[in-house]
Amino acid sequence: MSLHRRRRQKSRKGSDTLIPINNNNNDDENSSKEKKEKELNFRIKNSKVMGRYMVAARYFEPGEIIVSETPLVVGPCTGCKVQCLGCYQTLNQKDKYHKCKNCGWPLCSPKCSGISQYYGHSTSECNILKETKSSNFLNYANFDDLKINLHALVPLRCLLLKSLNPSGYEKLMNMEAHNEIRANIPEVWNGNQKTVVEKIRNDWGLLEYTEEEIHTICGILEVNAFEIGQNGVNIRGLYPSAFLLSHDCVPNTNHNDEEKDFRLTIRASLPISKNQPITLSYAYTLQGTLKRREHLLENKFFECMCKRCSDPTELGTFTSALRCPKCEKGWVLSTNPLDPEAAWSCNNSQTQESENRCPGYRVTAKSMKLLINRITQEVDSIDCNDIERMEEFLEKYRNVLHPSHYLCLGVKLSLSQLYGKINGYLINELTDEQLTRKREICREIMKIFDIIEPGYTRLRGVTLYELHAPIMILTTRQYEQEDITKSELRRRLKEVVKCLEQANIILGSESPSSAEGMMGIAAKDALEKIRNWEKIIGKF
Ligand SMILES: C[S@@+](CC[C@H](N)C(=O)[O-])C[C@H]1O[C@@H](n2cnc3c(N)ncnc32)[C@H](O)[C@@H]1O
């Protein structure tokens, strides 16, 4: 689900720790503080098209926290690999794993820190899985078969809230499930019937939960859950307020989650004025309109009509455009991006200058999708560390795809991070040409991110950090060779400082143990070092 990412050891027989709601005075205080903050930060409105949505109750500066809350429930995603029920590390059949002594479900070890934890393998879950003899259905000889059982785990955790945390269950059941729509999509409904409803009711014999109730929970998870987890952990979580953010393909917030308690924090990525909708993207912003809208329709059950989706050029970024094969000057764009079946045509047919005008090029949506799917397969087949093949791909499609086509953007984003990082391409080993390439790629993709992921966003933070390194090294080399003047040196160092300052601010809100958080810390260290230059060459 793509919405919206230490435990102490405890004896198995002990009660669960970290129960977040109403279990002690401190939590009461915290939750009433959170409630007050929420009231000051947002209001809920209703629209015929979107249902409930969040608007700002006041002005927000970029970087300001709008919502920060712990989840109602977390657990494995559907389609995930076999995971430890306590800490969610992926388990491999060949490596060491452990079967819970009480319920027989997979754990990483008998000492997993997630045992008896509210957000891990809780005692109540363990007992119910034992009582229902659910481990009889776990085939440890075949992990592919075993992982299907994990589909029903989060729905079970939701159902358990009914008795363990009734107010949390009430909040959860207040979320949109889109049952009427989903009931008419056989792949969705029948899939849930088989892997969740029948598992819980027939295999585990938990008949106290009705079919309708379980289907509703499946829908609530599909529509509202956030993908969360760090450092190899890939799970989903439902949050009491954050689900109210509506979708926009150019969102005005950024969010992250904590490794420790899965706290989700939503920050403004742009200035947000009072009464403005607070939005996030439920789809990948680095995909083209066809793909984003398809994802939103199939997974979130609505048709996105946002400004980016309505504009064939995607706000001038041309992230879905192809070079016209006929005139070789214009760009082939959808004639109606809100209709996935609309034909695509060259945008150079209406130009005033007749000698440059395209005689006309049109292609069906079906042919366009086939072509894009074929090129997508080619991109996907490239090893994620293979710089040469990525460069070859860009060269091969130079005259086919717009340089900012999302397939090129994805490859360029990878290159921006690989140059300087992998063996054979470590930053100080790069030639001037390679450093220039890294710098130019970073600059190129930043221009697009400024439009589709503007403001304080992870993509911009990371790319700004990547950009500082080639500028810095090229500048140092050229200054040492006396190829640039002191004033040029100052100008460039100023640019480096600007990149690092912004990267540090943007990535400073990431968890310090995440890759982005570490980059934020590295940006801060680099800033301090660069300040030493000021002592040598004077203020820049
Ligand atoms: C996570 S929920 C958001 C809260 C929901 N509106 C409610 O009332 O519970 C996602 C659902 O909100 C609606 N929605 C969110 N953003 C939308 C948008 N930009 N256009 C249309 N519907 C939207 C869709 O029905 C979608 O399935």
Automatic annotation (TrEMBL):
InterPro entries: SET_dom (IPR001214), SET_dom_sf (IPR046341), SET_SmydA-8 (IPR053010). SMART domains: SET (SM00317). Residues 1-12 have a biased composition (Basic residues). Residues 40-283 form the SET domain. Residues 1-38 are annotated as: Disordered. It holds the Pfam family SET. One of its GO terms (molecular function) is S-adenosylmethionine-dependent methyltransferase activity. Gene3D superfamilies: 1.10.220.160, 6.10.140.2220, SET domain. This is SET domain-containing protein SmydA-8-like. The lineage of its organism: Eukaryota, Metazoa, Ecdysozoa, Arthropoda, Hexapoda.
